[in-house]
């Protein structure tokens, strides 16, 4: 599939799901984990891309920027296959990543490394105004 065709598909997917009567959208993405350690970020490891302050215990994810177009914008609530509860989008990733989320694990580097890299299905409500 060409990059252009893939982009059109990603843009049309929410419309197709809505037309089918499914109010929640879903997508399989690559999921990794990150922490608030200076080695993983910069000199402000608790500060997310939109200016939100992160703290251990928060259920937060960062999303690749291509997912913003699908409604996974700041404040969107997401469920992640295999994890309990809802996670909030409060961070965005470097533009080089696509179809990817990064799950915030506070300052627990061991837990983040144990998570590794997985393919998961995420679910969220349609686009927010």
From TrEMBL:
Record has Signal as a keyword: yes
UniProt keyword terms in alphabetical order: Signal
Superkingdom classification of source: Bacteria
CDD domains: DPBB_MltA_YuiC-like (cd22784)
Secretion signal, residue range per the UniProt entry: 1-19
Name this polypeptide is given: 3D domain-containing protein
